[in-house]
Structure formats: C-alpha cells, structure tokens
TrEMBL record:
GO molecular function: iron-sulfur cluster binding
Domain of life (superkingdom): Bacteria
Name of one Pfam family that matches: Raco_middle
InterPro entries the record matches: 2Fe-2S_ferredoxin-like_sf (IPR036010), 2Fe-2S_ferredoxin-type (IPR001041), Beta-grasp_dom_sf (IPR012675), Corrinoid_activation_enz (IPR052911), Raco-like_middle (IPR041414), Raco-like_middle_sf (IPR042259), RACo_C (IPR027980)
PANTHER family: IRON-SULFUR CLUSTER PROTEIN, IRON-SULFUR CLUSTER-BINDING PROTEIN-RELATED
The protein's name: Uncharacterized 2Fe-2 and 4Fe-4S clusters-containing protein, contains DUF4445 domain
Location of the 2Fe-2S ferredoxin-type domain: 2-94
Length: 523
C-alpha cells in the first residue's frame, strides 16, 4: 500500500501500488477536473507532487506540461502511476472547474411549520444543477444552483459516457456524486427555512438522456455508439431507493425521454413554450453543451441534439470561464476598437460563452479575423503576436492578460456549426425555411446574456428579425415545475414526449454536409 497526502486540506488516503493518481482522487471525491475523461488530452488535471515524484513523465505529460512545469514537479493526475508514498498539492495548480454556488430565497422573512409540505424540481444539466423548491405545489420559494460535480470527469456527455463505461465503479461514482449534490441541496433548503427534509414529498428531475441515466444509476453502454439503445420510458422510484431522504414513501420522477440524447430537459422547454399547441412554425434552441433543438409546424414536433461541446459555457477555451465575476460577457466595436464589459465590473480574468461570441463577431467586423476563422496578423494593430495565435483584448501590460486564441475560435466554429446545422436539418424535415418561423425561443442560462445580432452574424442563429426571438430562461426547470404544479399532469407530459419525432443526426449524411458548410463565418 502507498500513502497519499493531499495539501492544503491535510487529507491522507491509501491505495495499491501502481494505481493511477486520477483513480485515487476520484475514489476519494477530490474535485480536480478530468475534462477529457482522463485520456491525457486536455492537461487540466495538474497537481504538484512535492514528495515521491519519480518524474517518469508520459508522452502526454511531455506534450502538455512545459519544461518549467515539469522541473517544478507538476504532473498530470490522469497519467501518473503512484509507486511510492507521495504528497500532492492541488488547489493552486489544477485548472479547476470553478465551483458555482448560488442560492436565492424567493420568499423572504417567512416561516413555515412542520406541517407544511414542499416539492422539488431539478434541472440536472451537464454543467450546472439547478433546484427549485415549491410550497404546497404552488409557489417557488427557494432556488439553488451548483456546478455539476461530474464536471471533474468530463465537460460534455461524450466524456462522461467514456469515463462511465470504463468500469462499473466509475459509473457508480458519477451516480453517487450527483445524488450527494441533491442531498446537500435539500439539506440547505431545510436549514434555511428551519424545516425537516422529510417535509419534501416529491422530486421531479429534468435532464438529458445521459444525466437521467446517471441519476438513476443506469448503464450508459447503449449511449456509447450508434444506434443508441436506452430506456425511453418514464421513471418513478421511491426516493429512499436512491438514498435521498425526503418524506416517507416520497417519490423521484422523470418523464419519458424524447430520443437519442434529447431528454426531459428539452421536454421541459416544450411544456414551457407550449409548442405542441401553437399554430404556425416555431423553433426552440437550448444553447449549451448538448445543444437541443425543437421545431414545430402546426403542433407537429421534431427534435434533435448536437454535440456542440462546452465552448458556449467557457469550456475548452484557453481562458474560458463560466458567467461569473471577472468574465468578459459583452463586447462591442467603438471607434474601431473592441470595448468589453466584465461581470461584476472589476478587471477581466477570463471569457464566458456570450463574451466569446461577441468578441469573435467584433474581430470579424474589424477584419482581425477572416471568414475562415483565421486570425489575420495584419489586423493585430497594437496587439502584436507574430504567430497570430491570439488576439489580446485587455490593455497592454494588464495582469492577467486576457486573449482569444486561435484554438478558441476553432472551438467556437465547431460549436456554432453544430447548432446551425441541427436547426437546418429540422427545418428541412418539415419543409420550411427560416423566414417562415413565427417565433424562436432561446432557452438556458447562456441565452440571458446572448447578443442575438452578434450570434446571427457569426452564423450561430437564423438570420430573421430580432423581434421573433424570445428568451424563456431555464425551460428545463420551468417544465419540471409545471408538472409539480399539475398544470400539466405527469402522464400528459409523457404523452407529449411520445409525440415528438426524434431525428438522429449522427446517421444523416446531409447533416455532415451542412455542418462543414456552416464552419466559416461567411453568412
């Protein structure tokens, strides 16, 4: 056995020799980001090994760690095999998936008795988990937001699936950490209002197919390859079966999945927008890691998901971050220069998804970048970079320097092309063009700061009048609340899900054609 000491938290763990450091950290729930699923591709899981570093660097470490980092003792947790007692320091070296912790008390200065009852709606997102608590199935009184703890094991569903199918132990880990998060949310709510967790009597979970499978500890093997195989039916289990402590015989429910990677989060958006009841043509886009899209024509619904990746949420971006203090979230061209705004009003420390879209759109406008997405050296006036690998947006001499890198633009191109191609595929299925759309709903937290004009300019969204766009907020969570309030019954929600025709893009040659054609910024 080897001893692993973790600083600064002063934890000690024991493991068999030759166990990977990633496995040791995962088993002991240390939140270091394994963004690529532990395949030695992203370089995000840096740790400082202050004792017991054999410096037997893998090829991945030689590629992803600089010589100076290796000299200082940095290693990649996913690549290092522990052969002797070691001491590691994690907090200042790992490029942490910044934890998002936010709570909002909707009803202040109000007390409840032990006789009152509550229900809980959950938007189980790939990146973020949001829970709301309703009093007496009527009024939302508390909202909690947390970073999905699974983010440490991959930023998108593909990485999560890859990690989960390695072993049953990995899948159980992903299941347990999300259940732990649910329990912590319930505990916080109960402590805030001085009530008992047992007063929560029902939970409705909305999420994509992968997240739902992990919440109920179901195998992801069927989602690892096309054609996908999975349980589409609704799920109703006793909370105690998932080790969630609420009212005795309290239930956890999720409606039927729509198909493929399109889950109940998309159904929630459909319930919120009432697309199945609407006349004319409507489009709904949940812009995020999984990129769900729904098109309706006279109530007939088609849906798909696109592997947009985490770029819209700051993932896989060199200086990317979530929409929080320090993030550049808006940009405009003023006097032939790019002016930007920072969340919180302080100095810029990174760029979130909406900021990246604005900046790239501005770069295109100023010809700092050409239509193929290549940074043009001649355009880097005052921001010289001989290799044209980045465009610095902060004033010269700023610390930290914040820049958009060439690789960031490529990530955005992949993401925006995936969304746009998905939209075009569904429009073709219903034989309509974008000009015929009466309404376009934008869902998800990302849409709150989205500049529609800029998003259209880079080819992310259809070029239609801006007054056709409507931001609906967290449609997944709102859909869960609609079910809990009995505005639409659980059974009705299941029937609506079954009415949606799922289009599997991975099987469509036409999707690849549109995707490739949508990569450039020439629309």
């Amino acid at each position: 056995m080897v001893e692993v000491t973790v600083l600064p938290v002063q934890n000690k763990f024991y493991a068999e020799e030759s166990t990977s450091l990633m496995d040791i950290m995962s088993q002991n729930k240390l939140e270091v980001p394994f963004v690529c699923g532990g395949h030695g591709l992203c370089g995000k899981c840096k740790v400082l090994v202050s004792k017991g570093n054999d410096k037997n660097f893998s090829d991945a470490e030689l590629k992803l760690l600089s010589e100076e980092e290796r000299t200082r003792g940095l290693r990649l947790a996913c690549e290092m095999k522990v052969e002797q007692d070691i001491c590691i320091i994690i907090d200042q070296y790992s490029e942490d998936v910044t934890s998002l912790t936010k709570s909002y008390k909707e009803r202040k200065n109000h007390s409840y008795t032990k006789k009152d009852t509550f229900v809980m709606a959950v938007d189980l997102g790939t990146t973020t988990i949001v829970a709301s608590f309703l009093y007496n199935r009527e009024e939302r009184i508390y909202t909690i937001t947390r970073t999905n703890p699974q983010s440490s094991y991959g930023l998108d569903v593909v990485a999560r699936i890859s990690y989960a199918i390695i072993s049953e132990k990995n899948q159980v880990l992903l299941h347990e950490i999300v259940i732990d998060c649910f329990r912590e949310m319930i505990r916080e709510f109960a402590e805030t209002y001085h009530i008992l967790a047992e007063q929560v009597k029902e939970i409705v979970i909305m999420g994509n197919t992968t997240m739902i499978h992990l919440a109920f500890n179901e195998s992801l093997e069927g989602l690892a390859k096309v054609p996908f195989t999975y349980e589409r039916k609704e799920r109703v289990v006793l909370a105690k079966e998932l080790k969630i402590e609420i009212k005795e015989n309290g239930k956890v429910l999720t409606p039927a999945l729509i198909g493929g990677h399109v889950g109940t989060d998309t159904l929630g958006c459909i319930l919120e927008t009432k697309m199945w009841r609407r006349e004319g043509c409507c489009l709904m886009i949940d812009i995020g890691t999984n990129g769900e899209i729904v098109v309706s024509k006279e109530g007939k619904l088609y849906a798909c998901s696109t592997a947009a990746g985490p770029a819209f949420e700051g993932g896989n971006i060199v200086q990317g971050m979530k929409a929080q203090a320090g993030a550049v979230y808006k940009a405009e061209v003023r006097q032939r220069k790019i002016d930007y705004e920072v969340i919180g009003g302080g100095k810029a420390t990174g760029i979130c998804g909406s900021g990246l879209i604005d900046i790239v759109s501005c770069m295109l406008e100023l010809r700092i970048m050409d239509e193929t997405g290549r940074i043009v050296p001649a355009g880097l006036v005052g921001h010289e970079d001989e290799a044209a690998e980045k465009f610095v947006i902060t004033p010269i001499g700023s610390s930290p320097e914040v820049a958009v890198y060439q690789k960031d633009i490529r990530q955005l191109q992949l993401a925006k092309a995936a969304i746009y191609a998905g939209v075009q595929m569904l429009l073709e299925h219903l034989s309509i063009c974008s000009e015929e759309l009466d309404k376009i709903f934008i869902a998800g937290a990302f849409g709150n700061n989205l500049n529609i004009e800029r998003a259209v300019k880079i080819g992310l969204l259809p070029d239609v009048p801006s007054d056709k766009y409507e931001y609906i907020g967290n449609g997944s969570l709102l859909g869960g609340e609609i079910i809990l309030k009995n505005e639409i019954s659980f059974q009705e929600a299941n029937e609506i899900a079954k009415q949606v025709t799922h289009v599997e893009l991975a099987e469509q040659e036409r999707f690849q054609q549109i995707f490739i054609a949508s990569m450039d910024f020439n629309r």
